[in-house]
User: Which sequence fits this backbone?
């Protein structure tokens, strides 16, 4: 469920970067980049994945990779290469890679409690 927005940058090297506002959607697996953004970064598809929308509709989207930079950290992450009408979303995989968790009560991101088993 998306309930808050954060500003971040995405980049693909060689000075290609874009700033955008992400809807934080902890119910979405992957981060989504709007078509205009990933095209401007010249991202290339690496594979195709199937997704199910909230209404049950099945869609396919290409997956690429880029660097996502937020105030609380940065990481390389898989991203859905959005089509026309797709909005910027920050998904659970990227949040986990950044070591962040969404607090739904105050709509903010915080470092997650990291566990190491020995």
Assistant:
């Amino acid at each position: 469920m998306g309930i808050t927005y954060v500003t971040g940058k995405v980049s693909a090297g060689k000075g290609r970067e874009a700033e955008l506002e992400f809807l934080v959607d902890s119910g979405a697996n992957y981060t989504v980049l709007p078509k205009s953004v990933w095209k401007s970064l010249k991202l290339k598809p690496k594979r195709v994945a199937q997704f199910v929308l909230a209404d049950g509709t099945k869609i396919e989207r290409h997956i690429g990779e880029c660097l996502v930079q937020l105030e609380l950290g940065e990481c390389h992450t898989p991203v859905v290469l959005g089509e026309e009408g797709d909005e910027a979303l920050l998904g659970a995989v990227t949040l986990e890679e950044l070591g962040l968790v969404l607090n739904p009560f105050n709509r903010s991101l915080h470092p997650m409690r990291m566990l190491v088993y020995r």
Observations:
- The chain has one domain: 2-111.
- Helices lie at 35-41, 92-98.
- Strands lie at 2-11, 17-25, 31-33, 47-52, 58-70, 73-81, 89-90, 100-103, 108-111.
- The first helix runs from residue 35 to 41.
